Amino acid sequence: MSVSHRLFPGETLHDVAMRRGHHPQTIWNDPANATIRDLRGRPIALVEGDVLVIPDVRPRQESCQTHERHVFRRLGWPATPWIAIRVVDDPTGSPVANVELNVGPSNGQERKAATGPDGIVEVQDVDRGGVDVSSEFAGAHVETTLDFVDMGESPSSGESNGGMEGAATLNTGGTAAERPGAEARKAEVDGPAPKWIAQIEAHKVRTGETIASLAEGAGLTWQALAQFNWGTSVPDRINQHLRDDVGCTRKTVDGRNYVFTSDDEPGIVYIPRPWSLPGLATDRMHTVRVRKLTPTRLVEWEFSI
């Protein structure tokens, strides 16, 4: 007689199938599981609390000669090691597509893969044991780089950007009703452009600091830090962004370049650092929670003549 089973935290279809004496596809393709198939699309997308119908094990008989040794192999066992990463937007829980990840080792090598529309990337035939996951953000921009928040199914507590509450908002002077809502945020996070993950600090500049010193502290070149924040490494254009985005008002003695001071408002420079997850367990899906930062800027005025 068929029974229902509710998935508990960390449990996969493979776990259930092996314990119940089934091949995973036998359970997944059972007509009684049509609703959950339509909802999730593929077995790896199952989550805690999903209910599966487990059909009866169908007996099978084989004729064998006596006085001989016979070997029977269980279909799907031993299983090929796999790992899956699901990337979701921390505030909304929505899946994030097109996130570029490096996953390995797989046959001794690292594989490059990107999350699909469901926010999941699945890599088969990985080396059994710990698998490392990372994301290369070299040459990326703050608008296409996601800030790592935490692991797991539950949203974070809201602490962000090195404890700088509200540092990653766009100050447009509009009312709450005029700011982007959940649907606009989902479209912004889940756009078609490739994305990367990093650990991003919203750094409040201080007197005496320079772009070069901030970059050096993060293991970057000043050009890479400027490119990440403002999409350029051309000095004249950087100066425009220092004035318009960072709020710099003081210049060098020769008047050629802006310099940081503790009084600059908003005074934020985004500093990215490499992100990685070493030694993740195989035969599991791991959920990575991220957020898209919206850089703080001075109030932007729109007018026509």
Give a quick set of tags describing it:
single chain; 305 residues; alpha+beta; Membrane-bound Lytic Murein Transglycosylase D, Chain A; 3 domains; six-stranded mixed β-sheet; four-stranded antiparallel β-sheet; 14 strands; 18% helix; elongated
The first-to-last residue Cα distance is: 77 Å
Strand order of the largest sheet: 6-3-14-8-9-12
Specify the overall morphology: elongated
Low-confidence stretches: 160-182
Number of strands: 14
What structural class is derived from the secondary structure elements? alpha+beta
Query: Averaged pLDDT, please?
Result: 85
Largest sheet: 6 strands, mixed
Rg over alpha carbons: 25 Å
Sequence of secondary-structure elements: EHHHEEEEEEEHEHHHEEEEE
- Helix fraction, binned, reads 10-25%
Percentage of residues in DSSP E strands: 25-35%
Annotation field: number of helices: 7
